[in-house]
Amino acid sequence: MRSPSLRLRVSLAAAAFVAAAAATLTAGAAEADSLGEEWVAIDPALLEDMRGGFQTANGMSLSFGIERVVYVNGELLASTRVNIPDIGRMTQAQAQELADFNQGQVIQVGEGNTFEPSANFNGLLVQNTRNDQDIRALTTVNVGVDTLSAFQDLNTQQALQNAMVAATSP
After folding, report:
1. Signal peptide span per the entry (predicted)?
2. Per-residue pLDDT tens for 63-94?
3. Which of the residues 9, 51, 67, 168 has the least number of beta carbons within 10 Å of its own beta carbon?
4. 136 and 73 Cβ atoms separated by less than 8 Å
5. Which residue, 59, 60, 58, 78, is CA-closest to 68?
6. From CA 80, how far away is CA 78, in angstroms rounded?
7. Are 53 and 85 in contact (CB under 8 A)?
8. Is the pLDDT at 2 greater than 50, yes or no?
9. Are the CB atoms for 87 and 53 separated by under 8 Å?
10. HSE on the CB side for 42, CA within 13 Å?
11. What b-and-e string marks burial along 74-109, b requiring 16 or more CB atoms within 10 Å of the CB?
């Protein structure tokens, strides 16, 4: 037969677990409300089409994108972008885009620029013969890893552990 103190501890542990779970949900809702009325949630299906991803055996999703832009005096001169929303289902066209991106790019500003690329040139080359030019070359790499479920599991385990420690403490 259970002792009253064991029943009390089990009840306290259950109450602490429910309170921790409720606090987690409330904190998330309060955080979303604090963003303001101008923030509108985007439909997850739309986001999925935009970012996609490769899902590993353990459920992790991976996506990849790379963009290279060159601005001269604030004017966009060149832009190259590759977006692979689902690495696990990369299409032939996406693989070709990635190969094309890796072939190299030459941007020439002004007159008299010359460049003879070698067979293995695969970078970005900006040549400039003018003075006082503001040249900006930016490369952005986006790698998406879906780890939300892992963080949720970790948060739940931490809440349960805290509840059990609280319930068994004198």
Report:
1. 1-29
2. 888 899 999 999 999 998 998 887 777 889 98
3. 168
4. no
5. 78
6. 7
7. yes
8. no
9. yes
10. 8
11. eeebeebebbbbbbeeeeeebeebeeebeeebebeb
For the entire predicted model, the pTM comes to 0.51
**With contact defined as beta carbons under 8 Å apart, do 80 and 70 qualify?**
no
Which residues, including other chains, have CB under 8 Å from residue 111's CB and lie 6 or more apart? 129
**Residues contacting residue 49 through CB under 8 Å, at least 6 positions apart:** 85
| Domain chopping of the chain, boundaries | 4-43+149-168, 60-145
**How far is Cα 98 from Cα 65, in angstroms, rounded to an integer?**
9
Other C-beta atoms closer than 10 Å to the C-beta of 38 total 5
- pLDDT for 91-149, tens place per residue? 899 889 888 888 888 889 999 998 887 777 888 889 999 999 999 999 998 887 776 66
Q: What average pLDDT score do residues 26-30 get?
A: 47
